[in-house]
Fold Galactose mutarotase-like enzyme.
Amino acid sequence: MTSVPLITITDPRARATASIAPERGAIVTSFQVAGRELLYLDEATFRDPTKNVRGGIPILFPSPGRLADDMWAREGRSATMKQHGFGRTRAWRVGRVESNEVILALESDAATMAQYPWPFRAELHLTIHGTELRLSMSIENTGDTTMPFGLGYHPYFLVKDKRGARIETDATQEFDNLTRVTRSFRGIDLTSREVDQHLLDHKPHRMPLFLADGSRIEVSASNDFGHWVVWTLQGNDFVCVEPWTSPGNALNTGDHLLRLAPGQRHESFMSIAFVSAEG
């Protein structure tokens, strides 16, 4: 186990703080409002550099979800890449740090090019305003060919009473990642042994997670995030509400892949806002 340096940003008036670990995939490890922790974090996986972190807010880039056999082939190129890509495991460089914001950057190098042969520069801007934490991402194609990619976020919310929790959605179609079946939406039972539901036509670009005490967590994202995933495991105190731009295996199928021309930049955001029971 190792010690991991953290950067903490805060809004004192709202008594809101967030901690970020640039060296562990720029993961947000904690988001607290008035002393209340909103994120789940498995400390053992966080402090073991050989493990993928279970908890916090992992960044899924350049390929959310799992590739078939952890491999992709596109436009005459092919490589292997682990689930959710390398954005969540690479060290991000620290740029500007202010009391309520921090800017981090990730650029392509030999290790990323071996998995994903497109040069890029990603810049992540994290800010706290009131009880909202916002992650704004800028991704630039620094190469000379069109760059295909996907982006997602995987926030683990701390939910100890799943019977009293619920998620609001207008989805009518879902892909059940456990049975690999696409079907009409049947609702979300957070008390099931495992939930891994991909909501295919959720439209509002926001998804509230209502908690047992009457408070809620609002997850919002820019318009490119049209694929929303809900995941939880029985016996674990988390519920994940995940906005993705494309489904798993998109580098193979092309389904909703984003594409950047040389020199082009893609801007997006995801935010988390806490609303107390008193509103």
Observations:
- Residues 110-115 form the longest helix (6 residues).
- The mean pLDDT is 96.
